[in-house]
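Let's do one together. I've listed all components of the complex below, 528 residues spread over two lines.
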Amino acid sequence: MKPTRRIKLISQLLDLPLIDSDGNYCGIVDDIELEGSPGKKTRLKALLVGPGTYSGRMPGWAMPLIRLIAGDRVTRIPVTRIESIKSFVQLDSKAEALGLNKAEDRVRAWIPEAGAL
Amino acid sequence: MNPLELTLGIMTAVGGFVDISELVFAAKAGSKFGYALIWVFAIATVGIMVFGEMSGRVAAVAKQPVFNLMRHRLGLKLGMLTLLASLIANLITCAAEVGGVAMILNYLTGAPFRLMAIAGALVLMASMWVLPFKWIERTYGLLGLFMIVFAVALVAIHPPWDQIAGGFVPQIPKGLSTKELLIFAYFAVAIVSAVMFPYEAYFYSSGGIEEEWGPKDLPMNKITCTVGFGLGSLLSIAILASSAQLFTPANVDPQLLGSSALEVAIPLGTTGLVIALLGMLFAISGAAVETCMANAYSISQFFGWEWGRHRKPREAPRFTVAWVTFFALALLIILTGIDPMQLVEYAVLFSILVLPLTYLPLLLLAGDKSYMGEYANGPVGKTLGWLYFALISLAAIGALPLYFLTSGGQG
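Okay, and this is what the predicted structure of the assembly comes out as:
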């Protein structure tokens, strides 16, 4: 995506699912990173993915439960990796190339392959 | 529209419509109030048709299941609250369904209840492991068609059809005391909850994504929801009507799940009884699988994990762990020794409390043109949607007071 395109950050981007170039779900836009300074234009720099970003958005008591269920990692996705924004954010790379598959892979190692049609 | 797919879709919806709470509350409602609560079943069925159609449409058009978009629409905090509420409601419901499966296996084999709970849960989990989504949905839905024996049994006892037809007209029986009126209201709320359980819309919507629906599938979605759910609901009404005809004059209060099966045994004998028990077993098993999967869908979609049973378990690892965990938790709840019939009461009560919270995002999404474009809710969809939202909100407000005032419908 061109970094100059105008978007409404909250209503158009925050909390949208991410889909990688293979069509797999690989996270949610949990937070965003901006660049700019007072008096200058503010630009979207990166998407932040992972429950580690929730601390500013959720009450403190909920965090231990969230950490237990979903962990507390944060992965940074540069804005240039965004291909399009619709009802989901389409990325132009595979999840593994962006570091978005680590938790899935860790759990995958415990799941047997046998038996499923 | 492929006629074979459409027929299978309708049959699956019919066979998968009835679950343990509908079985229990239909039989109890018939024995306590005759045909006077049929209209509540009818109104609630139109409600699940409306929200079911919306959830299928959102899946087909936005290509995203409800929980994915719900978090985007409601924000993280309210989204998390909705997630927690629906997870708890679905877990209690799943535990009640597992308990129901164990009870029926106990009736059929005479083996101990707890052993049957473990065996039943293991078989269901194995089926979820082995079968891909379409087969899971079709297997339980089509086997649930054994439930049609309840309609056959109703015809066989020659009920007063004019009185049954009269039950479709909204009414409150005359001459009820205040206490009986409160029980009537409690049953009405419980039936709305049982028919419109929150897991149904989430499972249906995620199923649409699993089967890769697109706008071309919208007519099939509409027909499946209206015809399939409508015919499915008629089975619940048949259970209610048989109960009214057979149990009310005899002063029988069908407290147990097996009482419903007796409605078939009386006119059709042992063969009918076995068919009824098998129908109940498959229908309740299907509901157990659906509630468990609905929870795994919700949590996976909320956190953006890989999900779906069109993929092999290893291809959506955290989704797999989620459904295995929820099923194990449901089994553990049953193994504590809690009465499954009590769990049905809790499931119905908790579900109605969270129903407005779970259906509001769906209503907002289906009416949002930025997601839905030309397929957003029209005037009819909007009116019906908000009307039903007001109805379930009213039922949610009244549920707790009615539960305590009537001791859970016991009076």
